[in-house]
Amino acid sequence: MVEGSRRHSFTRRDVLRTLGRTALVSPFAGSVLLNTACGGSSGGNSLTPPISDDQFLDYLERACFLFFWEQASATTGQVKDRAAASGNDTRTVSSIASTGFGLTALCIADQRGYMNSASIQTRVLATLNFLANQSNVNGFFYHWVDMNSGQRSGTSEVSSIDTAILLCGVLTCRQHFQNTRIQSLATQLYEQVNWPWMLNGGVTFSQGWTPENGFLTTRWDTYSELLMLYLLAIGSITLPIASSSWDQFARPTLTYDGLTYITNYSAPLFIHQFSHAWFDFRNVQDAYTNYFNNSVTATQAHKLFCLSLASQFSDYQDSLWGITASDTENNGYQAWGGPPAMGPIDGSVVPSAAAGSLPFTPLICLPVLRNIYDKFPQASGRYGFVGAFNPLTGWFDPDVVGIQTGITMLMAENQRSNFVWDTFMKNPEVTSAMTAVGFH
Fold first, then answer.
1. In 3-state terms, what secondary structure has residue 330?
2. What is the DSSP string of 35-80?
3. How many domains does the chain have?
4. Which end of the chain has fewer CB atoms at under 10 Å, N or C?
5. For 143-164, what is the mean pLDDT?
6. Neighbours of 75 (CB within 10 A)
7. What letter does residue 380 receive in the DSSP assignment?
C-alpha cells in the first residue's frame, strides 16, 4: 500500500501525491486520466502534485484533452457539443466548432506525449476523412450534426464562423503532422470553401444559411470573434474575398474605468479570445489596433467590471471573477457578461473566461483558476472545469461545453509554450492574409 493510504482523511493534494506515483491523474477528477503505458511521458508528464503553475496547467490540459478524446466518435472524429462533466453521457449532438478545437487538442496532446502518436494520427485521419465526405454547402458545414452519422441536427444552420473554427483546427493539423494524407485532406477542406458565396452579395459575411430560408439576415459586421473568418477567407488561394473586406466591419470602442479598447457592446469576453487561440497577433498591428493588446485591455476591463458588482454579488473578488457565454442556473445558455452589463448576471463564475485570457493577463487569470480548483471542488471534474457555477446558490453546471473546454486547453498551451500559435502561423495563407490587410 502506498504511503498516505493509511491516513484517515485525504486532502486533494494528498490524493494527487498518492496516485501520482503510478499513473497520470486528473487533479480535477481524482481518477486515472491517462496511464503512462498508453503513450509515454515525454512532455511535461510530472508525477508530482500540481504545485507549480506549469504543472497545474499541464494537469488542466490533460483533463481537457480527455474530453476531446472520450466525447468524440472514434469512427468519425466528430466531437460532442457538450457532455456530462462526470463523463457518463449518451448525447450524440456534435458541433463543428467543438471538432475544430478538438483537432487542435489532438495536436497539443501529440506534442506533449499525452497519448501515443499513432493513435492520435489515426483519430485525426478519421476526422478529416469523414469531413471530406460529409455533406456541406459550398464548403461550409452545418453547425450541429449527429456525431455518428454527420446528419444535420434539427434546424441547424450552415455556419460561417463555426466553419472557420473547424478550419483553424484542420490547418493546425496540416502543419503539425508530417503525414501526407493529413496534409492533403486538410488542404482539400480549406480550398473547397466558396468564401464569396457567404457574402451573399454584400461586403460582410452572413452568419449562416439554411435550406428552408436561405441566408440569415444577421451579418458578421461588428468586431467579435470574426477576425479568423475574414483572414481565412482573404488568404484562400482558390476562392478568396477581397482584402478590402477587412475594413468593412465596424470596430466600436468602449472606455471603461479609464481603459479604452475595441469591442462589441452586445457580446461577451470570448470574442476577445477565440481568434487569438490560433492567430498570433502579438507584436503586430493593422491600421486600427494591436489586437493582442486590445484583448489584454478587454480582460482587464472585464475583471474591473466583475469587481464593480461585488456589492450585489459578494463572491466576486480579486481571485474569483469571470463571466462569458455559458450555461446558467435558471436561464439556459446565455451570452452574458460585460462591460457593458448583458444578460441575467446572478453571481455565477465561468472558468473559461479567465482561462481563455491566460496568455493576455496570466498574472490575474491564473490565480482565478487555482482558486476555483482549491476552493470549489464541485466546479471541476473529469474534463476540467465545468461550464459555470454559482458560489452564492451552490449551483454547479452538470456539463462541460466543448468550445469552453477548447479555449481553456488552447490558451493554456499558448501561455505555456506558444505551440498553437507557432504551429498555425506556419500556414502560408494565414501570413499572406495578414500582410494583405496591412499587419506590420
1. coil
2. -GGGT--TTT---S-S-SHHHHHHHHHHHHHHHHHHTB-TTT-PBB
3. 1
4. N
5. 98
6. 12
7. E
- In whole numbers, what is the pLDDT of the chain averaged over residues? 91
DSSP state of 284: -
Q: Which are the contacts of 176, defined by CB distance < 8 A and separation ≥ 6?
A: 107, 110, 111, 423
pLDDT band at 28 (very low <50, low <70, confident <90, very high): low
User: What is the model's pLDDT at position 51?
Assistant: 80
Give the sign of the dihedral formed by CA 272, CA 273, CA 275, CA 279: positive
Give the span between the Cα atoms of 384 and 59, in whole angstroms. 9
Q: What's the mean pLDDT in 221-236?
A: 98
What is the distance between the alpha carbons of residues 90 and 428, in angstroms, rounded to a whole number?
A: 40
- Does 283 fall in a domain? yes
Q: What is the mean pLDDT of residues 89-110?
A: 98
First to last CA, the chain: 60
**Cα torsion 324, 413, 396, 302: sign:** negative
Q: Which residue is it, cell 449527429?
A: 146
Q: What is the pLDDT of residue 49?
A: 52
Q: Would you say residue 8 has pLDDT above 80?
A: no
Give CA–CA dist 100/51, Å, rounded: 31
361: cell is 493577463
Query: Which residue's C-alpha cell is 481537457?
Result: 64
What range defines the domain where residue 420 resides?
12-436
Q: Give CA 366 to chain center in angstroms.
A: 17
User: Does residue 2 sit within a domain?
Assistant: no
Q: What is the CATH number of the domain that holds 263?
A: 1.50.10.140
Q: How many CA atoms lie within 13 A of 297 on its CB side?
A: 17
**What tens digit of pLDDT does each residue of 324-359 get?**
999 999 999 999 999 999 999 999 999 999 999 999
Residue 31 pLDDT exceeds 90: no
Radius of gyration of the chain (CA): 21
Is residue 54 domain-resident? Answer: yes
pLDDT in tens, 197-224: 999 999 999 999 999 999 999 999 999 9
DSSP readout, 254-271? EEETTEEEE--TTS-GGG
- In one-letter notation, the amino acid at residue 279 is F
C-beta separation of 412 from 355 below 8 A = yes
**DSSP string of 205-244?**
EESEEETTTEE-S-EE-BSSTTHHHHHHHHH-SSS---GG
Note the pTM of the prediction, 2 decimals: 0.91
